């Protein structure tokens, strides 16, 4: 997943969560724009963190796959 889509998706979720919170409190949805900004920044930061974690995990999986393929080739060469 691309960085922009990850951050934007989480930020959108933050805006939706803020709107639901205001609805539960029976306050107007358009009140408190600072809260919306805080939600966008907080959830966007979470999206950025998740993106970086996903990238690190993909690299670790790629390295592990290379090791496993090398071990398989070596084992097949010994058997032959």
The coarse overall form would be rod-shaped
Nearest-integer average pLDDT: 94
Structural class: mainly alpha
Largest sheet: none
Beta strands, count:
0
| Distance from first to last alpha carbon | 42 Å
Compute the CA-based radius of gyration.
22 Å
Query: How many DSSP H or I helices?
Result: 2
Task: Report the uncertain regions.
Answer: none
| Percent helix | over 70%
Keywords: Membrane, Transmembrane, Transmembrane helix
Transmembrane segments: 29-50
Provide a descriptive summary of the structure in words.
This protein is an all-alpha fold and 80 residues long. It has one domain (3-79). 86% of the residues lie in helices and 0% in strands. The protein contains 2 helices and no strands. The protein has helices at residues 3-24, 33-79. α1 crosses α2. It is rod-shaped. 10% of the residues are buried. The chain crosses the membrane at residues 29-50. Keywords: Membrane, Transmembrane, Transmembrane helix.
Task: Give a short synopsis of this structure.
The chain crosses the membrane at residues 29-50. Keywords: Membrane, Transmembrane, Transmembrane helix. The chain has helices spanning 3-24, 33-79.
Please name the defining characteristics of this protein.
single chain, 80 residues, mainly alpha, 86% helix, rod-shaped
List the topology elements.
Layout: H1 3-24, H2 33-79
